UniProtKB/TrEMBL annotation:
EC number(s) recorded for this UniProt protein: 2.4.1.122
Organism: Tolypocladium ophioglossoides (strain CBS 100239)
Gene Ontology CC: membrane
Family: Belongs to the glycosyltransferase 31 family. Beta3-Gal-T subfamily.
Pathway(s) annotated for this protein in UniProt: Protein modification; protein glycosylation
GO molecular function, one term: nucleotide binding
Record localization: Membrane
Chief subcellular location: membrane
The protein, known as: N-acetylgalactosaminide beta-1,3-galactosyltransferase
Domain Fringe-like glycosyltransferase: 209-285
Amino acid sequence: MALLPRPPEPSRVSRLLNKRLIRTAIAVLSFILTVYLVLASRDGGVAVVLPLLGYRETPEAYHFSTTSSFQPVSINPTGKTKEELCATFPKHLLNYVQPVLKMGHSEGRAKIEAQLDSVLACFGKDDLLIMSDLDDTIREHKIVDALADLPQSYYNLRKNRDFKNYMWQRQMRDNGTLHSEDPTATKPIDGWVIDKYKFLPMVERAWITKPDKPFYFFLEADTYVFWDNVFRFLQTFDPDVPVYMGSPSPGQYDKTRDIKTWFANGGPGFVLSRGAIKALLHRESGSNGQYIEPPIAEKWLSLVSEECCGDSVVGWALWNANVELQGYWPMFNPHPLHGIPFSDLYWCQPVLTLHKTTPKDMVELWRWEFGQRTLHRPLLYSDLWHFRHPGELGVLENWDNGDWDSWIPPSEAKVDSFKSCEQFCRKEDRCVQWNWRGGNDKTCILMQSIRYGQAREREMIPEKRGAKPEEILAGEKPKGKWVDYNSGWVGERINK
Ligand SMILES: *[C@@H]1O[C@H](CO)[C@@H](O)[C@H](O)[C@H]1NC(C)=O
């Protein structure tokens, strides 16, 4: 009997190596597959992009069709009154999407007025919920103090020092000094620090006041919302599935599961479905039927007092209720209208929201929108381009077109003026605009996305981080540098 030669036995090490390689390959492939399935299962329109990590990924295509419910879909807004425009608004869809505005008593009145004249203009007093840190009435709207019924634990100022701002505000209103002409009277109240306490009570209160709505849309005083696109988009989701969507920001790190979590930035607005709110508000009960968990506002109080902002607490509370963020960027947009960084990442995407848009722009954009809607496709960023073009004028002094998707020339290039900054930009194909920060700064910023920007006068940038320019100017010797802002655009490349 002839002995068959045996195949060479792989060494133990290389066998292990092979196994590990195979395992790694399987892990990588299943990760890619999972990501693909997650993206595909949402019927497109997905833009899970991690902009803060400098990670550029082209958003997925939006490949399902939606229709507008405005009637008529489009009208010429010129000369029309607010009532005439609002007559076209599909009010019945407010049974499907409940708008909830979060504001603060100390917030600029111009912002609120502009919001009520634009994004919220078509909502009556029963359509809209407004949550604040003091009860009040603005126009016909009742403003709810979302913090009024919080548990006693919130008033323990040793644990929870910020909350005194809220208490002072109430006391001052009660003793008549809150609206006093003397600006120093209201100075100790820091509205920003109270803000984070409002988020969880706001969600709970919205649910109690307007229970069982399919979706809740939470926005702020400077959130611009394209309602037609929001209605179109949300109608493609099942409200009984937990849905939490918005503009993704990096949140808490989940140590037990070794996962970095994400939350929806509050400024561009966020959405919770009925299923998500039910999961969030759910409290475990024991065998005797008694709750064994506190209500959410109490459950997360210590986290709220440590965290900078309430939106991240909402994200973490939802994560702990097994509701994960669906990040839809750039549909939910953290940029203002004048700061949209137009590029291939934006151009063909529907626009759902904008943040920090100026009061004047909010009202103008809102009127313009009435003439732009089309039945079979949502409004896109490329449509917004027609509302206002960046770069039409070529160059502008005392103008800041920003610092986004940007880089600077190497020091050996010796770029030391507006002119040489321009020349450097024109030499690099991807450069569509430049920003020369003159004065003591002398920085040339080159950009590959196109932004309109805004007027910006010469100013003192303080050396000390966080100090306000006026604090420095009031001091004897200014510590910092003078900067002037000058912007330019490469017209031919933008047109192309
Ligand atoms: C009103 O209340 C505030 C906050 O508690 C207090 O600082 C202030 O002295 C009060 N003013 C008057 C006139 O009572």
